[in-house]
Amino acid sequence: MEGIGGFFTIIAIIVLYFLPTIIVATKIHREKTMVVALNVFLGWTLICWFIALYMSLSREGIEQLQANQAITVDALKGQYESEIKELRRKNRELYSAQRPQRTADSSQYDAELSNRQAELSTREAELDSLKSEYEERLRALSEENRQAASQPQPQVTAASQPEAQPSPEPQGLPAQAEYEGEALYVVVPSQFERVVAETLSRRFSNQEVEAEDDAASRGIALKLFESGGSKSQPSAIVQCKLQSHDEAVEYRAVSDLLGSMSLHGAERAYLITTGSFSDDAQRMIESGTMNDRLFLIDGMTFNQWRTQSGLAPVHYLSLTG
Question: How crowded is residue 279: how many other Cβ atoms within 10 Å of its Cβ?
Fold first, then answer.
């Protein structure tokens, strides 16, 4: 009996010693690595054990995520409200311009005005629906993030590529000599991501470019960090889209990138494509409050970046041919 009692005493001491690590493993926390290190290596000092326990009980990680999501929702709400205000202003201008000209056929004018008001109401309903959909997606992303934090991350093994189409190194940039001379023909997304990484490393000399090989990156191909700074939070995220020159990136892709920027805690985001952007996607940037944080780079602008950085322009094969 004394042996069994001693065994359970040892188990209780071990659980008590690793209590901060157990607590932080069950929640989202920005300083999870720091808490585990303090607990495992310095917990025997008691002072570090109490510091680790205090940090593990903090809700700072969840509060920061909720604050970022609130900023994103407020920005999107401001865009919707500004668009509604613009539609109402145009409606008032139309009414004021046509009011002096109303004559015997005022019934026709009234019908046109009614149609205009109906169109405005429909547009407001669509905007409300889009806002609800976006908020629901934010909640789903938050829930996925919490679930991922409470479960061990699976190891992802990259699929082998044919020799003619090598995949990029996770953290390396391509040799610059590879793209000097004749124009480069880009035919696969992994090759385009390497070209974008090389271009950004030339254009932003004060930034370090790293490839994003996390399976949960949600389409983010590259991250930018301040040179010599911390790697815990990127200064910018980059999404690369290889497509035909006559294809346009739609509004939904830009909206998704806006949500990813908030979740990664980045100050800026770049969407770089070999094609173009739809009118809705461009208006989202021009009419909103994100025009100095969210940048849409089409194929022509990207080639201008390369030539300005002393690199050969990029040509790409049609993906539909």
Answer: 9
